Structure to design on (323 residues):
């Protein structure tokens, strides 16, 4: 799982809480204990969780994690979103090897080496390409329709660097014999009482001339602002060789209490940047509850305002266990 909003709220880069320096997937021990137990846990149950918390460590060099996520619809249908087990080995300081297992075997595996107090990194193996905000909803327009939906793992190499407050990642892939190059960068800081995160992602691909297909060319701008209990985050994507496809997202998270959040989101997608010929659009409101840090219960209501499902709606309950 991944919460881009926590980066701007805490003023910390993604690698502070995740094994993967670009965020998502397995948490490290700091992310599981210091952040999750303090941010993602109701105050009423925090003492109970602290007394019974166990470290995710199998040995001195081996740790584990997991993500199990389901959607339960109001008509009784159940959809399994995620069922992953993580193993991470650190055979020597600042070198990690990570595996992600799902029902069909190993989906993600890579080795990563950090340098100079984790300011620099090299990652080689099979992993998800970095792009924009890693919002939780893998089917959101800014993820699924730019080729970064669920279970998207390809072989490549990634170079990361942190300098003068900037975090930059360069990645190289060769899916199906087509070269793909991506660069992703962001900066975070504070302007008085307001925290901010601002960044951009670029991806260029030989696949289908970079216009259509699984990995089209993309140009993305994203950012987030935080003030006290309120965090807004947004992303704008232009997809395709000629930037003829547009995907937009904005979300507002209000912390009612630690472990209890009200989330409102807006998604927009236009395949040819001509609204008259059709576009998809929806709004969603959710209540996110963490009884304890690794259990999430999230009832959500989605209303479709444009597209083939116009005036239709969905109500579902998301149940997630992640550690």
């Amino acid at each position: 799982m991944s919460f881009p909003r926590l980066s701007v709220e805490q003023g910390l880069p993604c690698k502070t809480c995740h094994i993967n320096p670009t965020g998502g997937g397995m948490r490290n021990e700091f992310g599981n204990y210091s952040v999750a137990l303090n941010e993602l846990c109701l105050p009423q149950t925090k003492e109970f969780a602290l007394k019974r918390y166990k470290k995710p460590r199998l040995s001195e060099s081996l740790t584990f994690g997991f993500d199990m996520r389901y959607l339960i619809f109001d008509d009784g249908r159940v959809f399994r979103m995620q069922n992953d087990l993580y193993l991470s080995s650190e055979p020597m300081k600042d070198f990690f090897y990570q595996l992600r297992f799902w029902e069909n075997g190993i989906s993600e595996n890579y080795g990563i080496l950090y340098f100079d107090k984790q300011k620099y990194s090299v990652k080689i193996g099979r992993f998800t390409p970095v792009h924009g905000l890693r919002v939780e909803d893998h089917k959101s327009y800014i993820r699924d329709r730019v080729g970064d939906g669920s279970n998207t793992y390809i072989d490549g190499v990634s170079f990361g660097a942190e300098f003068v407050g900037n975090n930059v990642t360069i990645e190289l892939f060769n899916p199906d014999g087509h070269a793909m190059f991506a660069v992703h960068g962001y900066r975070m800081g504070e302007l008085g009482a307001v925290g901010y995160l601002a960044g951009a992602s670029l991806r260029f691909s030989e696949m289908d001339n970079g216009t259509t297909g699984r990995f089209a060319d993309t140009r993305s701008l994203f950012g987030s602002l935080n003030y006290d209990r309120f965090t807004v985050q947004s992303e704008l994507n232009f997809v395709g060789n000629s930037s003829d496809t547009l995907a937009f997202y904005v979300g507002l998270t209000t912390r009612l209490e630690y472990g209890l959040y009200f989330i409102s989101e807006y998604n927009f997608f236009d395949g040819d940047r001509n609204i008259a010929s059709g576009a998809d659009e929806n709004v969603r409101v959710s209540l996110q509850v963490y009884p304890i840090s690794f259990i999430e219960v999230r009832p959500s209501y989605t209303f479709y305002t444009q597209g083939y499902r116009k005036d239709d709606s969905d109500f579902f309950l998301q149940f997630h266990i992640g550690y």
